[in-house]
Description:
Layout: H1 11-28, E1 30-32, H2 35-43, E2 47-49, E3 54-56, H3 59-68, E4 73-75, E5 84-86, E6 93-96, E7 102-104, E8 111-112, H4 116-128, E9 134-135, H5 149-160, E10 164-168, H6 175-190, H7 193-198, E11 202-205, E12 213-214, H8 216-228, E13 232-236, E14 239-240, H9 248-269, E15 275-279, E16 282-283, H10 297-312, E17 316-320, H11 334-343, E18 350-354, E19 356-357, E20 362-363, H12 365-380, H13 389-392, H14 394-400, H15 410-419, H16 425-430, H17 439-452, H18 460-474
Parallel strand pairs: 1-12, 6-18, 7-20, 9-10, 10-11, 11-13, 13-15, 14-16, 15-17, 17-18
Antiparallel strand pairs: 1-3, 2-3, 4-5, 7-8, 19-20
Helix pairs in contact: 1-9, 3-9, 4-5, 5-6, 5-18, 6-8, 6-18, 8-9, 9-10, 10-11, 12-17
Amino acid sequence: MAVLRFGFMDRQEEDVIHTQSIECLERLGVLIHSQNVLKMLRDAGAEVDLKKKIARIPEKVVNDAIKKAPKEIVLGARDPKRDLKIPVERFPFVSTGGVTVFMTDLETGERRKATSKDLADFARLTDAMDPVDAFWPIVTTSDVPAHAQFANELWVSLQNTTKHILGSAGSGTLGTPDAKTQIALGALVAGGPEKLRKRPLFSVLSCIVPPLVFEAGAVEAQVEYARAGIPIISMSMCMGGMTAPVTLAGTILTLNVENLASLVITQTAAPGAPHIYCSEATLGNVVTGQIGYRGPEAPMIFAAAAQMARRYGLPKMAGILGIDGEVPGVPIPYGEVSVLMLSTMSGTDLCSGIGGLDLDKGCSLEQVVIDSTMWEEYRSFMRDFPVTEETAALKVIERVGQGNSFLNDPHTMRNFRSQMFMRNKRTELYGATMSDRMVSDARDVVRKTLKEHSVEPLDKSILAKGNGILSAYAGSRM
C-alpha cells in the first residue's frame, strides 16, 4: 500500500545515532535513583556504581532487550471492538493530551482547576468522538489527595470511556503503591490479572528526567507495570539547548539513549513485556524558555524518533496533535498548524495532544471537538492507496483513448469517492487559522454530546470494589 510518510535521516545518519547511543550507554551510562533497579541491571550484565547511582549498559544487554521486546502489541479497551493493534498501517491512533493544570470553563470561558466531574465529562466526550482512539486523562483532578490523583484519574476514565486509556506513573515514594493500585483497578475491570495482561485496558507513560536520569518512584513503578503486562510508554521530553545539546542531532541522540535505557529496564524486569518507544523531544526556545512544539524543527525530530523506533522494530509514539493555542479555537498561524500536521506523518503508531491549550498547560472541552475535526482532515493525507496493475488503470486509459475525458467513464463514477477527500463546511470553518469562529459551534457539540451520549456502566459490584480500592488508597496517607 502507498501511504504518505516522511523521514529525516538517511541510513548512514541513523547509524551515527545508533552507534553514539551505544557508546553513551556503555561509557557514560544513565543515572538511576533506585538501588533495586540498579541491582537488577547489575545482575543482567550492566556495570553499576551503586554509590554514584550510575548504570553503564553494554551493547549486548541493549541488543538482548531489543530482541525480547514484542514488535506487535494490542492496547486493549473495555469495548474489545475498540482495541488498538500496533504497528499501524496507515495514520496513527490519536489520543487527548494529558496532565494539564487548568481547563477553561465551558460556560464562562474562565481558566480554573478541574474536578473528577470535569474529567468524567472529558472522557465521555472523547468516547463519542470517532476520530479519537484513546483517552489520556487530560486534566489533573483537584478534588482528591495529591498522591491519589493518577489512580483516581484512571478509575474515573474506566467508568466514562470504553476506549484504551493512557495513564501516568506516580513518582517519589508514591510510585510503587500507585502502580499497584492502578493495576488492581485495571484487573478488576478486565476480569482478573491474566485477562488484564492479555488485553491491557490501560498503558502508562513513564517519563525519563532529561538528560539521562530515572527518578526512583517512577522507575520502580515501571518495573511493577512491566511485570503486570501493562505497556510502558517511555516518554523522552528532552529539550535541545536546555536538557539536550542544541543541535537536532544531539537532541535525537539524547532521546534515543533515554529510550534504549528505558527499554532495557522493562525487558530486564519482565522479558517480553510490551514497551513503546516514545518521544516528545523538541528544541527549547532559549529566548522564552518554552518548549518548541510548534517550531519547524519539531516534526524533523519526531520523524527521526520514529525512524529509530522502526530500526529497532519497536512500537512507537512520536509526535503531537492539537492546535494548542492560548485560547480555544485556531489562534495560531498556518505555519504552526502545518507543523502539527507534519508531525503526524512520520510513521508513528500513536500520537497525543487533542484538546490541549497553551502548549499543553491547559485544555478545553471545545478544543477536543475542534482538534478532532482537524484530525479528520489531517488523516486524509495518510489514507492507503494500493498501487497495482488494476489501480494503475491502463485498460481504462486504453478504453478512453488519447485526447478524451475520463469524467463520464464508469471507472471514474465507481472510484472517485474512495480516491478524493470531500471537505464539508464544518471542516472549512474549523480549519480557519487565527480564528475563534468555530468555538460556539464546538460548544454546542459538547453540550449536545454530554446530554445525549452514554457510556456502558461498570457492573455495580465492580464499581463498589473499585471505589473501595481507591478509597483505601486515597486515605492511606491522610
